[in-house]
Design a protein that fits this description.
The structure is a single chain. The chain is α/β, with parallel strands linked by helices. The protein contains eight helices and 19 strands. The protein folds into two domains: 178 residues, Ribonuclease Z/Hydroxyacylglutathione hydrolase-like (Metallo-beta-lactamase, Chain A), CATH 3.60.15; 127 residues, 3-Layer(aba) Sandwich (Rossmann fold), CATH 3.40.50. The two termini are 20 Å apart. A seven-stranded mixed beta sheet has the order 7-8-9-10-11-18-19, with helices on one face.
Length: 344
Amino acid sequence: MAEALLTFTDRGLYCPEGDFHIDPWRPVPRALITHGHSDHARTGHGTYLAPHQALPVIRHRLGPIRAEGIGFGEARHINGVTVSFHPAGHVPGSAQIRLERGGEVWVVSGDYKTEADGLSEPFEPLRCHTFISECTFGLPLFRWESQARVAARIADWWQENRQAGKTSVLAAYGLGKAQRLITMLPGLGPILTHGAVEETTRILREQGYAIPATTRVTAGVDARSHPGALVIAPPSALGSAWARRFGPVAEAFASGWMALRGIRRRRGHATGFVISDHADWPGLNAAIRATGAERVFVTHGYTAPFRRWLEEQGYDAGIVQTEFGGDDAGDGDLPETGEAQASP
């Protein structure tokens, strides 16, 4: 009997025949990377293979690395395994990884969302026999409003704050969510950015992503120089001395976790906008159906209930224990559910 195309190890997803890992969390000789969030792209690997569109941010975050880019849809043969990268729709440059050997196809989703956001390469459904799916928001209560509706809510909040003489400070993760928000809210007024957000935004602009102009917050850039501005900053900036430079402020956090009132209260966010770079419950189910897969492994999120749901739908389902989800640049910070992940 042929060896499994992928195995689940304490270093990450491993392809024995190809002798490579996918998004490993401990150092390995050869790593295939789905995207630049720091829980998926980590330091210490011998070589890296990632989409061309993801590599500039990965290099910026990791420093000098031995890395090679690959185009979306380009087939690469690695020790008898055919590998290709396909858009995941999660953030700019993010990919799913397809593996094929002797007609058997596995797909590793990485992180993904199915709603096109106008910035990231849209999610591409891939047919396969085995699908490894994230399920960060794998409960029926997670159902996202359209991006247009969320944009309108943010615009109304921004305008109300402006009329009250307050600067609007909106917290968003620095790769993907921040640039998505900038793109969603053009022409409503000046948008200022924290240095961490602006640096990533600059890299993406230089790659050709159409992100409207913003102004980096430096000395002298404040509420007086840019009255009525919207400030986009990392979550760590909320309530900080950095934010207080803008005088009276109204703060909000943009995240899928804002769908849970308990999370908002515990984290002290009076205002939350529910917008995620991960698939919601309908998106997860639609993506899995589109694969035609008979076997589905789920990872990082509400894995136990989502696995039970998939089994009820007739799938051969399992759980992959990973160290994804604790990233400071993605939606992956889990609430305190007390849920433990189990081995497959």
